[in-house]
Amino acid sequence: MVENQETENIVTETRQSMWSQMGKTEDWWAIWLAGLFFIFVTACIFIWKPPVEDLPKYRAIMEQEMEEAGFRTIAYTEAEKKLKGIKARSEGFTKTLRSITDRPKGWTTNPIKSIYLSESEAASKRAQAADRYEQAQAELERTRAKAEQAENTARAANFEDPELNRKAREAITEWRQASSAFSSAKSAANTQPYNLIPSLIILGIVLMLFFAIGGKFIGFNLKEYFIGFPVIFLLTILSYLLSKQATMSALGISYVLFGIFLGLIIANTTGVAKSVKTAGQTEFFIKTGLVLLGARILFGQIALIGIPGLFVTWVVTPIVLITTYWFGQNIVKIPSKELNITVSSDMCVSGVSAAIATASACRAKKEELTLAIGMSMIFVAIMIFVLPTIANVTGMHPVWAGAWLGGTVDNTGSVVAAGELIGYEAMVVAATIKMIQNIMIGVIAFGVAAYWCLRVEPERACKPGETPIKLSFGGAISEIWYRFPKFILGFIGASIIFSIMQAAVSMDWGNAMVSEGILSLANRFRGWFFAMAFVSIGLSISYQDLKEPLRGGKPVILYIFGQSFNLLLTLFVAWLMFMVIFSDITEKLMLGA
Amino acid sequence: MKTKQRQQKTGDGPPSPAPLFIRWLKLVFASALIAGGIYLAPNLERLPWLGERIVVLRESGINVGAWYYDDVEQYFEAEQYIREKRGLDYPDRHSNR
After folding, report:
1. Which of A242, A269, A463 to mutate to probe the B interface, most B CBs <10 Å?
2. E strand or H helix at A7
3. ipTM for the whole complex
């Protein structure tokens, strides 16, 4: 957007026209590429359309059964299974497209199994799972017969006898659980050989060409980009592969950390070739990924758990964010505002996702983002074990504990993990609270971008010691528009478009075509974009760069203060909302548990 | 308009003065450290208290490292659970049964 000619510490800014920006900047090309992606995938799901015309039929069966019985009967369960089986991502070319984005699989001791499994190894796995499969099948048949008998008895009484209804419900629940265990056993007993190498090569080529489209207009040296890209992609695969080791995976050490580490090691030992630096387009990968992420920020989900959920997320989180940022500026005196806001939002909103969005919105340095993410991951690895232990030892109510975890544990997967260590209801509530908090990322990113344009950038735009120029209202608007990171518009735009789309269509059609179609593919590609971005970040940082922001341990102090405040405030508000004011919602959530 | 430049140091800085052989040796050493860490990681599962919890998480199949909700299968399960319990899918017409 801005061309800078550096003169010591002062740079001269040459303004570009909006048309020029739209054709030549990575902010706009992130939007164009993401738009191109959405158009292409939407075309795919309509050309290779799943049998969505059957959805109303299955929904009608479910509604009729619910109307008659008041609980999920066998027919309801079977119709629900068929309804959920209708997915755009399982059809035609959409399925192929999704399969080439397969990530390395989980492994325990042999990393090769992450990308390759021979026929003999698959046969060995099938043989090992055969007994379990037979047992699961026998259990399924037994529970099915019991459920049928219990349901028929209740149906004979026209579902008017509460005791018979209860017995039928219990028997059907048992059958559903056996069905779930059977599916898992069947999947193990049907283990097929795989070789991800060809699909990874295809994916690498697709991604390389995809970003080259924008790169041509932005002004990449395409020759160097094409030479360097395979290195970035190989390191990306390696970071995924390492993160899939079973214990690492259980500890929540994700590809994000491995990507940064691998890059850092190379950059600080052998150094990085010019072509690899050219291919490591961190900002471009991140911005395009963020526009795809925007499509998953569905505002319809905000009210899922009612007012108490809104309080724990949309009231507590901004309070903690602003307080932590203020503390960082005025008490700890963090030298960089960008580092301060990135650490604050990472800590109190939702970890890595919020850190990426905020860092991009305020144009933080790569090492600042790395530091925020690194700290967050270390603290999360501790919190997922310590917080559930506190909740269990003190006998906290599962809903209260779940809300507490959902509002405080940074990373999304870690929230579910921590909830799982308490119990099912805690896991469900924690997951839902976190999901609502995730939706906040768009608003936070927009707010940070606007604040930076309005307050921080004008301060920087004048010589040291000078007072920023006072702009008229119109001038301020024009200035904000000029400085605003435009990809945020794509991020918010995608969120608004998909939120409206989700609300405009029926829930089942939306799930089959949008959630399990467009968004499912967006998720896969987004993951690769971000993984490449983290490798690129690592490759562009020297150890010295990390030392400077860590000086005096200020970011750590900031994180510990913010997280402590977050833990206490969320604990109190979650108790007030779920245990005192809206205890009826808590009772409903626990009903039948 | 003039703007103050934020000092942006990256790995693009001057190359390490160490000889090439030493730099490669460092790379091999760092890679061996990562490989060793991963090789030894399963031993964490033998630790009292922590080990049990790691095993629970490993066997649960939760994508613990995921950083957005749509990468975690349990989120969709949770949404379904909340909708059912709060009667958002179906009005609570049969609570008396």
Report:
1. A269
2. strand A2-7
3. 0.80
